[in-house]
């Protein structure tokens, strides 16, 4: 289906309206791609999980930058937050089922499943997920999906 990416981002943000307001987060959008041919349910799942994490692991008055663009033959979706970050040695572990970073898991609720499913979906779509982070500064997730 033709997915209206811009609309979908708005919809996902509206689901988390309360959480965003409670933390006084600033949302920055760089939406260069309006529509993309994909499965809307899967796309919603990917965005919901990345945005949910970007809210949960963010700081008060932090920001979330959501970007979409086409690059070569890929749709690039990225979500960057100004939160607690992910320690260098953990960036591979976070995609494992039920894995949660142990020194912070008591502070934040969650099951540790979100990213493992995200990774599976991205793999199934022949895409790629990349994470870049610096502890206590930022976390950036980039999803690359091939254009069919
Ligand atoms: P849920 O299943 O409800 O999403 P969760 O958020 O704990 O639970 P994942 O989304 O799979 O699970 O994330 C796994 C772990 O990776 C998290 O517990 C957290 O430690 C770390 N993590 C994920 N996203 C971020 C982020 N944006 N900033 C910092 N740490 C993160
Ligand atoms: Mg999560």
UniProtKB/TrEMBL annotation:
<protein>
    <recommendedName>
        <fullName>histidine kinase</fullName>
    </recommendedName>
</protein>
<feature type="domain" description="Histidine kinase">
    <location>
        <begin position="1"/>
        <end position="148"/>
    </location>
</feature>
